[in-house]
Amino acid sequence: MMKLGNRYEFHTHTLLSDGELLISEHVRRAENLGYEVISITDHADVTNIDEILSKIGEFIKSEGQYYKIKVLPGVELTHVPPQMINELAEYSKAKGAKIVVVHGETIVEPVALKTNLYAVKSKYVDILAHPGLITEEEVKLAVENNVYLELSARKGHSLTNGHVAKLASKFGANMLVDTDAHSPDDFISQEFAYKVALASGLNSEQAYKVVSLNPLNFIKKILDL
Ligand SMILES: [Zn+2]
Ligand SMILES: [Zn+2]
């Protein structure tokens, strides 16, 4: 098997929302596992976007220089009215978010209908997390707007990975394996991420692409490289 490379994690939570760790410990633990990149994407709605992004920004500016791992600021727009997703995503980018994740229509939470649709229609959205029973139409829009679809390593959210992988493969949508980590035990290795991709029904070549190549393409996209 080809080398899987280092891990890039784009969807995680800290004490800025419902995660367990202070940013410093969260980042340190990811660094200690050999991660190349960690994105902090705490749950956000209209009330806390500024706060989340200014706190992560403060961390990066001061403590950030002492870590080897690259820390990226982001938000996860969570349970916001779907009609507001585009404007809140645009606002988040203006406030310094490098990554906008949208909390998709996981089957284990009462996420508003059309959340997936509005997320994949927005050019300011980078990742549609745990998109549940995403439709073919939505997957096609994700391809058009280059929104990456998440295969989740998280309990519950991962129930529909097989469905997501099947449609994403059929229409050529980009996928990422992310943890949605809320606590230190949630961090995974590249080997485990690869298994999550295989368990979603992808073949070894597809799984390798999702785990090892897509993160590099994704980071070029979000950092405009
Ligand atoms: Zn959460
Ligand atoms: Zn999340």
Any overview of this molecule?
- InterPro entries: PHP_dom (IPR004013), PHP_phosphatase (IPR050243), Pol/His_phosphatase_N (IPR003141), Pol/histidinol_Pase-like (IPR016195).
- GO terms for molecular function: phosphoric ester hydrolase activity; zinc ion binding.
- One of its GO terms (cellular component) is cytosol.
- Residues 8-81 form the Polymerase/histidinol phosphatase N-terminal domain.
- With 225 residues, this protein is an alpha/beta fold.
- The protein has eight helices and seven strands; from the N terminus they run βαβαβαβαβαβαβαα.
- A seven-stranded parallel beta sheet has the order 1-2-3-4-5-6-7.
- α1 (23-32) links the parallel β1 and β2.
- One zinc ion is lined by residues 13, 18, 43, 182.
Sheet with most strands: strand arrangement = 1-2-3-4-5-6-7
Protein structure class: alpha/beta
How far the N terminus sits from the C terminus, by CA atoms, comes to: 29 Å
CATH class: Alpha Beta
**Helix residue percentage:** 40-55%
- Quaternary organisation: single chain
> How much is the radius of gyration in Å?
16 Å
N-to-C SSE string, H for helix and E for strand: EHEHEHEHEHEHEHH
Beta-strand percentage?
15-25%
- Report the major sheet: 7 strands, parallel
Low-confidence stretches: none
CATH architecture: Alpha-Beta Barrel
Topology:
Elements (H helix, E strand, L loop, with lengths): L7 E2 L13 H10 L4 E8 L4 H14 L7 E8 L7 H10 L4 E5 L11 H7 L5 E3 L6 H9 L3 E5 L8 H11 L3 E4 L11 H10 L4 H19 L3
Parallel strand pairs: 1-2, 2-3, 3-4, 4-5, 5-6, 6-7
Q: Which tags fit this structure?
A:
single chain, 225 residues, alpha/beta, TIM Barrel, 40% helix, 16% strand, binds zinc ion
